[in-house]
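Exercise: predict the fold of this chain.
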Amino acid sequence: MKQWLQRLLYGRYGVDQFSMALLILTLILILLNVFFRSFTIGILYLMILIYSYYRIFSRNFSKRRKENQYFLKWYYPIQHWFKDKQERFLNRKTYKYFKCPNCKQRLRVPKGKGNITVTCAKCRTKFDARS
């Protein structure tokens, strides 16, 4: 079975981040369609599913790579924002976060140190804060 799949995908573009995102979106729309039974959602998830398989089996590498780069340019800032929020949430008991008043750089200081003078590592601006 594995060899059959390898021969089938030989010379094809394959799965990338954009294809995976389309397949996950399709799965979400299928689950929504189970609850709402909407004809438009059904057509939409079928169209997205067909397009994602078209991308996977495509032989036009340059065009698929360009589409994936466009998707990643849009996706990475959103992913970074969520990872940043997750990190801040996980470290909420040990660190406090400040923004530098001069350059707006995010600074992390240990909690429970009282009134401290924070020095920005980027622009060397000093300001007082309570940790």
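Check your answer against the key: The beta strands are 95-99, 106-110, 115-119, 126-130.
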